[in-house]
Amino acid sequence: LWWSLVYYISTEEERDVFLALGNDRDRDIFIKAFWRQRDPTPGTVENEYKIEIENRFMYVQKMFKRGSTRPGWQTDMGRYYMILGKPASIEMFDNEPGLYPAQVWYFYGDKTLGLPTYFNVTFFKPHGTTEWKFYSPVMDGPSALLIRTQGAIDDTDFEGLYRKIRE
User: Fold this and answer.
1) How many Å is the Cα radius of gyration of the chain?
2) Contact assessment for residue 50 and residue 39, using Cβ atoms and an 8 Å cutoff
3) Which of 82, 122, 83 is nearest to 104 (CA)?
4) Measuring CA to CA, which residue among 52, 11, 58, 43 is closest to residue 30?
5) Helices 76-84 and 48-63 sit at what angle, rounded to 10 degrees?
6) Residue 38 — very low, low, confident or very high, per pLDDT cuts 50/70/90?
7) Which terminus has fewer CB within 10 Å in the chain: N or C?
8) 79 and 54 in contact (C-beta within 8 Å)?
């Protein structure tokens, strides 16, 4: 359970070290140190960050398992929720003619963490799938959002594709 809980918030080095540990005692010591170094208020009894991550995990396991064959934390939405937390707002595009269902999650970023002041993450359900997939404008391109019902769409005409999406 711990591995699933921290997979997206731990570093690759931390995961490698944890996997190399040979016994439960060493793993328990590692886990305690892992949470201690992330505690925002070390002088208090509770570790607020650990509690937040546990709450996120319970939420994604419940909410993002729907429509998926994978555990909620392994879905695209689950991964982003575990890393970024609850979005400031969500815009839904479930019944737009000619578009696959999409959601845009909006976040306020923390510049000290290298994030922009305000940003969004988009998910969509391509080709009638039941699981929300992360949408990457670079990897997927705008044509991935469009349901192709009639006529050819020029996948290289990004301006035309975005115009069609806005319509």
Assistant:
1) 20
2) yes
3) 122
4) 11
5) 160
6) very high
7) N
8) no
